[in-house]
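#struct-help
A.M.: can someone run this one for me? Single chain, 285 residues.
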Amino acid sequence: MVGGAGAVLRVWPPPIAVPWGWPPHPGVPWGGAGAPPHIPRGGHRPLQHTGVLPPPLCLSFPLAEGRFGGGLEGGGALLTSAPQLAHAIRLLLEYTETPYEDKLYSCGEAPDYDKSQWINEKEKLGLDFPNLPYFIDGKTKLTQSNAILRYIARKHKMCGETEEEIIRVDMLENQIMDFRMSLVMVCYNPDFEKLKPGYLEQLPGKLKLFSNFLGDRKWFAGEKLTFVDFLMFDVLEQNRTFEPKCLEPFKNLKDFMDRFGVSRVLLGSCCGCSRGPVFRASWGN
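D.P.: on it. Structure tokens below:
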């Protein structure tokens, strides 16, 4: 059930499952059109999640006082798809059993990517910095994916409790963003095929830093799950999709992924959260 009692989901046309690696639109690098996200389930106050996706258009109407959005626009073209920034937020909403309702904006076909559906609405939402993702909870209106994650996490004491945990959370949050962007810059570059070997060559060194940082801890901040674990799972999953064997040398990272995956984050409440597409680029459809 979406959001809670009385929630309505309308889908038109019917969603079509598209596997990973589906060929991107002509002239678009890896990361383009993919499977439409499934609608998750949850259990606290209704929120609405919004993302930009290519057809099919999945539109769920607002239920109550919450809205959440997931995608980025810029430079006259859609630079990153909704799931790339929204997936960790969906997982956190599910883990905290927060009911929300997904609203998905559609964009037109390549190469123009008509964004009029979002553009016509973006200035009417009362956002300080109109963008996707957005999140509205009553009078609280947020953009920026990490700010949204922190807002949800604070309500559930998932930002670290001790000074050491808080420092680890703050540092890792920004390190993950740098790591994510290193893959983004390769995938959106017209010379993707030339740059890919260089990225794969330096990938083990970057993963080793995360492995050393995790050490023998259960979670990245310590013994308790924090929102950066959701970010870390997301970005490691992206890289493992990019290079399936990249985590093989790092047992503690593999164990982290398995531990996260068998928790109720994915098995219990998130069995309906779709992963792809990662990017609307050369790789990641």
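A.M.: thanks! Helices lie at 82-95, 116-122, 145-155, 163-187, 192-214, 227-242, 251-262.
D.P.: also worth noting: The CA atoms of residues 23 and 285 lie 7 Å apart.
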